[in-house]
Amino acid sequence: MVGRKDDDYMDADSDSGASFVIDDDDPDYEKGRSKGSTAKSKKIKRKDKGKGKAKEQPYAWEASYTRSWDAVQEDETGSLQHAVEDLMAQGRRRRLLAPTTAIRRTIIRHLVLLLDLSESMMDRDMRPTRFDLMLEYAREFISEWFDQNPLGQIGVVGMRGGIAERLGEMAERDVSGNPQDVLKCLERRTSLEPSGEPSLQNAIDMAKATMAHLPTHSSREILIIYGSLTTVDPGNIHDTLDACIKDKVRVSVVALAAEMKICREFCEKTGGTFGVVLNEGHFKDLLFELIPPPAQRGAGKGSGSSAADLMMMGFPTRLPDSSPKALCVCHSILKSEGFLCPRCFAKLCDVPTDCDICGLMIVSSPHLARSYHHLFPVKAYVSIMELSTEEQSTASKTCHACSTPLKLQSVPGATLAAGLSPLDRYRCPECHNDFCAECDLFVHEVVHVCPGCG
Ligand SMILES: [Zn+2]
Ligand SMILES: [Zn+2]
Ligand SMILES: [Zn+2]
Ligand SMILES: [Zn+2]
């Protein structure tokens, strides 16, 4: 299409009889002429020069860019089904291969999510826009985060117009342990419309202030989704960085555009992670990598940190729906259902929370139990590459969990990526039962208990 247009243009030019400038020394010009054009104006020559360059000498970043569709191999029948399944299985397996040794982790987490709501979020380099994609993933992230960290609390802060603003109606409580409350802040898209410039310093200061009162046993984390390449700050942002290090606030950044030095510095100095998004899928991966609780920093180092701190927790009494109405201490709403603080008998709406009256941490026992699996993860199952002849007679023919028939022999000629079993058979190192790939995933991501070990 472009070439066609040029030819038209050249013809028109030569007809007009304009004066031509010929520069025979220029090799690019030769190319232009060899293409069969008769026109010789300088204007055209310059145009050709650009075009020739783009064809033969790609930019450095173009050369190193591997296209995802080049890596996909068709199988003998020319179908992509197999390749796609492989890629999916590989992705699932990668997440499972996280270290399974016992690490001291913070299970009482406090996270403030900083969302970039500046104009740069309207960029369409991610579909439909960065902004819409961010909202979608943020919602998924929050649901998953609460699922894995039932004792955690999240606050959401937006950055736009050079200031930081708390989102949603959590005015009197900056962070909430209720997923519905947090998701509500991201519900009304119109109220989040991006505008102006973001301010990293304002937002981090606000997030830090939100978590300033927290006791030492809970984590203080900030997760920034940043699409802009600039920040408008009222003061020196390095002072904020120093304050974050002092207060042990962990800052992680997921950048949508490119790396900014100050962002990386924040992550490196506070022990967080930094990542630049490559595509939509990678964006989600980067976010979801931040869901498991972080290993506790400084464990083993120093004198005070290696000893475990005991902390006081209260298990509340749940009030039946038929109980007389009373005001809750958190919202001052007259209602009958709720929970009673075991120490001061104040009435609370939701658990987990900190009692507003006596400050006791209130949790329900299922919440506590659900946080437990992070401390004792199920060991990764070993993928079985092949079964010896005697094993073939003794090995179970079905998955131990779902009774799906398992293969005893691999299909000859089938090539599989590293880490995947050609038999689709994964064995628990503890109880030596075999599981299918689906159950392997389900056990490690949802159940967190091996059905064979009990
Ligand atoms: Zn309340
Ligand atoms: Zn209380
Ligand atoms: Zn199964
Ligand atoms: Zn087992």
UniProtKB/TrEMBL annotation:
VWFA domain span: 110-256
What protein is this chain from? General transcription and DNA repair factor IIH
Q: In which residue ranges is the amino acid composition biased (Basic residues)?
A: 40-50
State if DNA repair is listed as a keyword. yes
SMART domains per the record? C1_4, VWA
- What does the sequence similarity comment in the record state about its family? Belongs to the GTF2H2 family.
Q: Which GO terms describe its biological process?
A: DNA-templated transcription; nucleotide-excision repair; regulation of transcription by RNA polymerase II
Q: Name one GO molecular function term.
A: zinc ion binding
UniProt subcellular location: Nucleus
Which Pfam families has this protein been placed in? Answer: C1_4, Ssl1
Region: Disordered; residue ranges are 1-57
Q: What is its main location?
A: nucleus
Q: Where are the zinc fingers (C4-type)?
A: 341-358
